[in-house]
Amino acid sequence: MSVVAIIEDDPRIRAAVALAxxxxxxxxxxxxxGMAGLKLVVDEPPEVVVLDLGLPDIDxxxxxxxxxxxxxxxxxxxxxxxxxxxxxxxxxxxADDYVVKPYSADQLDARIRAVLRRxxxxxxxxxxxxxxxxxxxxxxxxxxxxxxxELSPKEFELLAYLAGHVGQVVTKRxxxxxxxxxxxxxxxKTVDVHLSWLRRKLGESAAxxxxxxxxxxxxxxxxxxxx
Length: 227
Known about the structure:
Helices cover 40% and strands 21% of the residues. The chain is built from 8 helices and 12 strands. It folds into 2 domains: 3-120, Response regulator (Rossmann fold, 3-Layer(aba) Sandwich), CATH 3.40.50; 127-222, Arc Repressor Mutant, subunit A, CATH 1.10.10.10. The strands form 3 sheets. A 5-stranded parallel β-sheet has the order 2-1-3-4-5, with helices on both faces.
């Protein structure tokens, strides 16, 4: 069981999400405004925060920055705002994940479990299969169409991170911070170079992608080419 705080102004959404998460074994607290949510997180620290950006008293991004100033608790932003620049700005402001409304309770539950695994530094999440690509983080192995791929340690870390966020756009800043522990610089080509090497081993290119799709000006995502 985990403790989840929901900061959401719409009473119907707040109640529905709270009920769904409670049914899935989470202990849930909630707030309908940004400042009440901030007080809730400070006074009764949760393990995960689910944050709506469209709050009545303060912009959600401003609240996210305030949360980041006082706590490292994982924050999943759940909002109707789905444009790429908004997603980038939200992740750069400190969000751990981003889900667009409408979303299913099962999807939110899975994302909560994923951010908790990362936050707790728990064991590897297991095997991720994307099309013919199989990433086994525990065994530190990758297979493509049944054949093993020889990857460098950083290539493996890069692919494993993307496999943990299948279908989601991951920014270069996230990758540099998580894998290389570096701040993002506009002239830094570290991620681009490793993506190029990884693409070559996956039998694709940036011009003809299969698994690794670059979203220009935003980041990269791992997808199932057959989906």
